[in-house]
Amino acid sequence: MQAQPTSHRILVIGGGGREHALAWKIADSPRTVAVFVAPGNAGTARDPRMVNVPIAADDTRALVEFALANTITLAVVGPEGPLVGGVVDAFEAAGLACFGPNAAAAELEASKAFSKRFLARHSIPTADYAVFTEVNAARLYIQTLPLPIVLKADGLAAGKGVIIAPDQDTANDAAERLLANGGRVVIERYLEGEEASYMVMVDGDNIVPLASSQDHKPAYDGDNGPNTGGMGAYSPAPVVTGAVAERAMREIIRPTVHGMAEEGRSFRGFLYAGLMIDSQGKPCVLEFNVRLGDPEAEPILMRLESDLVDLLEAGVEQRLDSMTPAWRDQAALSVVMASAGYPGAVEKGHAISGIDNITNNATLFHAGTSLDEDGVTVRTAGGRVLCVTALGHDIATARERAYAATKIINWPGAWCRRDIGYRALSRM
Ligand code: AMP
Ligand code: GLY
Predict the structure, then answer these.
(1) How far apart (Å, rounded) are the C-alpha atoms in residues 231 and 235?
(2) Pocket lining for ligand 2, CB < 6 angstroms
(3) pLDDT digit string (tens) for 183-230?
(4) How many C-alpha atoms does 296 have within 13 Å on its Cβ side?
(5) Whose CA is nearest to atom 18 of ligand 1?
(6) Ligand 2 site-directed mutation target among 272, 286, 300, most atoms within 8 Å of CB
(7) Closest-lying ligand to the alpha carbon of 18?
(8) Which ligand is nearest to the CA of 274?
(9) Are 283 and 289 in contact (CB under 8 A)?
(10) Residue in 150, 194, 228, 239 to alter for ligand 1 test, most ligand atoms within 8 A of Cβ
(11) Could you give the strand order of the β-sheet that contains 50-52, starting from the edge strand earlier in sequence?
(12) Which of these, 116, 144, 146, 114, lies nearest to 129 by C-alpha position?
């Protein structure tokens, strides 16, 4: 029996491009009567369908109080920090529905050591690895690995905590540096192949795959330079063929969801497997995230045809087995416009021009932006500033539209990668 459609007052927690995209898609639902974003950004402030709430994403107590006082019926969490900090546990304790993993399940992203051990326990494919707290033992293991060697700091590092050492000396130095203040380092074998982001919605047991996507993590063209949170993304990812997606579900996603449930860490929320796909189409786990990727969420949500509120509600009510989301045939591509200096220290506070001249061919999701009190002037307020997203009948068309829109926008020091989507285009 179909439940009577009810309306929702929704709280989106976070303030980046992913949260703007979530709020944008949620606002589109006929079932949504109010969308609050905490803390949001200039993009969510300027959209008349949304209301920004000046509460930091990690201020759990204030978020719960706000949700109770404003009869929030459904909350959804964007970033990992609040999830790892237990925001879902706190909402549930207050009797509030919140889509996301609790703190115990968020360990999958919070600790690389936990996630690598979990993968080993459940025979889920991932690179050979070992975890160290002590430099000499790390050095011995480094000697046994082929080059290059991958080292990861344990704990949340926003995609910036990975070192790919081309030789043993570099690896030894990195291990020493990562262990200098105590802590743990994960050292692992380098995997060859092409990366893709495979995301699903999980209700503890049932799994709904989202459209495939790929992002570009390195800062500069040709995938060179330091790692970032992501400089652009697109969906679908041609490397994720139907056969690869099926293997990822069978060999990685299902065993992960069932393994977490067996271990008393039942996973509910968006689950993101960062995959390395080898030349035979075999997927291997690089990392888990316990949330949507950013910027992957932006092109994925632009392609989602179904009502996101229906999906989120089914997620918290453990009814995802009844959901099959529909996707637009079109491709979507996002280009991140960043501040001078990103991913290092950045200049903030520059006024952004051109925002109101963007045509319907592209959608601007705001990330690090703030709105002046005049309600008009939008300023840069972070490293990744805007995520310029477009649909097209293929990746090439979506890319042309997104890049055309980036040319209309400007501020001192604004830059973006010029080659987002090149891997997808080379497969066509
Ligand atoms: P992670 O935070 O673990 O996803 O690592 C960040 C990035 O480092 C990944 O997106 C990959 O590009 C790269 N990376 C991490 N682990 C490996 C590995 N074992 N082999 C090859 N590249 C890796
Ligand atoms: N774009 C990669 C991430 O969100 O972790």
Answers:
(1) 14
(2) 159, 215, 229-230, 289, 293-294, 296
(3) 889 899 999 999 999 999 999 999 999 999 999 999 999 999 988 999
(4) 28
(5) 190
(6) 272
(7) 2
(8) 1
(9) no
(10) 150
(11) 50-52, 32-39, 8-14, 74-77, 98-99
(12) 116
Q: Which atom of ligand 2 is nearest to the CA of 292?
A: 4
Which residue CA neighbors atom 1 of ligand 1 most closely? 287
151 alpha carbon – ligand 1 mean position (Å): 9
Q: Which two tokens stand for residue 64?
A: 């719960």
Q: Encode pLDDT of 50-106 as tens digits.
A: 999 999 999 999 999 999 999 999 999 999 999 999 999 999 999 999 999 999 999
pLDDT for res 424? 93
- What would the pLDDT profile of 42-57 be if each residue is shown by its tens digit? 999 999 999 999 999 9
The alpha carbon dihedral of 263, 293, 285, 178 has a sign of negative
Rounded alpha-carbon distances, angstroms, from residue 70 to 11, 14, 25, 139, 312:
10, 18, 21, 55, 19
Distance CA 393, CA 331 (A): 6
Tell me how far apart the alpha carbons of residues 324 and 38 are, in angstroms, rounded to a whole number: 29
Considering only CA atoms, which residue is closest to atom 4 of ligand 2? 293
Query: Which of 212, 294, 301, 335 is the pocket-test mutation for ligand 2 (most atoms within 8 Å of CB)?
Result: 294
pTM, two decimals, is 0.95
Q: Which ligand is nearest to the CA of 272?
A: 2
The ligand 1 atom at the shortest distance from the C-alpha of residue 112 is 3
- Each as own residue / partner, the long-range contacts of residues 113-118 (CB below 8 Å, 24 or more positions apart, any chain) are 113/154, 113/184, 113/186, 115/287, 115/288, 116/186, 116/188, 118/256, 118/259, 118/260, 118/263
